[in-house]
Design brief:
By secondary structure, the protein is an alpha/beta fold. It is 47% helix and 16% strand. α18 (440-452) links the parallel β14 and β15 (459-464).
């Protein structure tokens, strides 16, 4: 089977490649399938970040603004509502691209923060224009974004795929993906499938008869590796479609097959062949790694990141082999572990091997405030190249930590942050405010903890309480003294708790003051912040 794997816009500004598509590519290659991986999020950001693009848009406005055609009149009106004066963006893209392509400018926080603000504004305007062009394509007979889609299709056509898959992480990518696959349906007979977290969380809402008749042939929920291997077997005539795991398709009515009973015994190494790391908006260039699938703790009451995930682990030796391969293949020495939480035991084993092999790398990790972290272990981690840790502190109130089922202790947290700081590791601390059972006193304890330990904390992220769908609190709210009436459904993936905004706002103001001096030396974008530390 020949498969094109696509990561679509609009995820976020590309600082480093998302790992999903490279992992699926690595898996399929292990089973003898040919793959072509395309990061169209990165390509789209680069496409709309040129003077030529906004000059083209400006000239397009001028060409039709006096049209007497009723459809074109409505069309230009909608274009202007999305982006009134595109000519103003010509100089802006020139300026912000200089920042992203010049190392000295990139590492000047004021320049980078201004560039980040501009790229968000301009890219979202371009996405709105893209949608309007698709909405009016049949009425006016053309689409000014067609050159981008045709250029992408040329790569796909040359590969001659049997199937084309899109990995959709969140809702904002969905409209663009549907436009793209509607375009592909006119161009190719290759089977089209969707996957990714957005499909997993929202399959009942998104996947209907119209979806399969217009945009796709199949959708895959949960982990995709087993399903895609079996889909290849179906294409080869070895099994029936109903025997493909985790598959959604339309046959007289929506069909949903059960997930696999078990996954593969090993995790596959990501394949970045064909990725252009120079297209990413960052210094230094960073490669994503993972040590495990799902969260090894997997008990937090507000989280569902491991739901539907076939949990698995890599050995430290396997990840070291990946690091050495990527160093040789791409000349990149900076890495980011993207696991929901990297276990302390893995970091201990990994860092020991890095030191033994004399590898010169720098890396970051999301991890938990586990008491197993000792002063000696932090010194070993720092020596191996660990520069940046994102800690899910969540609260300074032990009562709230226990309700969250975090399994951590306030007093231990103080010691861990100090030991990490003393070892030279950058501590990025994340807190959550606004749990329905949280009081003003609980929230104040969080502020007190942060204030007392601010010398050992490099930056703080304050987050309003968002409950992932299918998290323990959402599934069994009565265990937490709640009812389903306490939840307000907001979008397709989150459940929002509206009554605690006042508490959050008060805490956010205090945390902002704690961050005031620290943030002057850092960019606002968390991934760019990591790049600053890994430099």
């Amino acid at each position: 089977m020949r498969v094109v794997l696509v990561f679509p816009p609009l995820w976020d500004l590309n600082i480093l490649p998302m790992l999903g598509v490279p992992v699926i590519a690595g898996c399929l290659r292990e089973f003898g399938h040919s793959t072509l991986a395309l990061d169209l999020n990165s390509e789209f950001y680069n496409y709309v970040s040129t003077e030529d693009f906004w000059t083209k848009i400006t000239e397009h406005y001028k060409a039709i603004e006096n049209s007497e055609n009723s459809d074109e009149k409505t069309y230009i009106s909608e274009l202007k509502s999305a982006c009134y004066r595109p000519e103003l963006y010509i100089e802006k893209v020139k300026n912000y691209m200089q920042v992203f392509r010049d190392e000295d400018l990139f590492f000047t926080p004021s320049n980078l923060n201004s560039a980040l603000s501009d790229v968000d504004t301009i890219t979202y305007a371009a996405v709105k224009l893209n949608q309007i062009c698709f909405d009016y394509e049949e009425k006016i007979g053309y689409n000014i974004f067609e050159d981008f889609y045709e250029k992408v299709f040329e790569k796909i056509k040359d590969f001659e795929p049997d199937a084309i898959g899109l990995s959709v992480y969140w809702e904002k990518q969905l409209d663009w993906s549907k436009n793209f696959t509607k375009f592909l349906k006119k161009k190719t007979d290759a089977k089209i499938f969707y996957g990714g977290p957005q499909i997993t969380y929202s399959k009942e809402k998104i996947l209907n008869k119209d979806f399969f008749e217009t945009y796709a042939d199949y959708a895959i929920y949960g982990d995709g590796e087993v399903a895609l291997k079996q889909l290849g077997e179906y294409f080869n005539g070895e099994i029936e479609l109903k025997d493909v795991s985790s598959l959604v398709y339309y046959d007289k009515e929506i069909q949903i097959t059960p997930p696999p009973k078990e996954g593969f015994k090993e995790m596959f190494s990501p394949c970045y062949d064909g990725f252009d790391f120079d297209s990413y908006f960052s210094y230094p260039k960073v490669i994503s790694l993972e040590s495990s699938r799902g969260c090894y703790w997997n008990k937090c009451a507000f989280c569902s990141c491991s739901n539907g995930v076939i949990k698995n682990n890599k050995s430290a030796e396997q990840v070291i082999n990946e690091v050495e391969k990527f160093q040789e293949q791409f000349g990149i020495n900076e890495f980011s572990f993207i696991d929901p939480a990297v276990s302390p035991k893995f970091l201990e084993d990994f860092s020991k091997l890095v030191i033994e092999k004399g590898l010169k790398i720098k890396y970051s990790a999301f991890t938990r405030l586990e008491n197993i972290y000792t002063k000696e272990l932090f010194e070993q981690l720092s020596k191996s190249g660990l520069k940046f840790c994102l800690w899910g502190l969540e609260s300074g109130s032990q009562r709230i930590l226990d309700l969250y089922n975090k399994g951590i202790n306030v007093e231990n947290n103080k010691r861990i942050l100090k030991d990490a700081h003393d070892a030279g590791i950058f501590n990025f601390v994340s807190v959550i405010v606004g749990f329905p059972k949280e009081t003003e006193e609980d929230a104040e304890k969080t502020v007190e903890f942060l204030t007392e330990n601010i010398d050992n904390i490099d930056i703080i992220a304050a987050n309003n309480f968002l409950l992932l769908k299918d998290a323990p609190i959402e599934k069994e709210p009565e265990k937490f003294g709640l009812t389903s009436n306490d939840f307000e459904f907001n979008g397709s993936m989150n459940l929002y708790m509206p009554e605690n905004e006042r508490i959050f706002d008060a805490v956010f103001d205090k945390i902002s003051k704690l961050n005031e001096q620290k943030i002057k030396k850092l960019p606002m974008h968390v991934n760019c912040m990591s790049s600053y530390i890994l430099r």
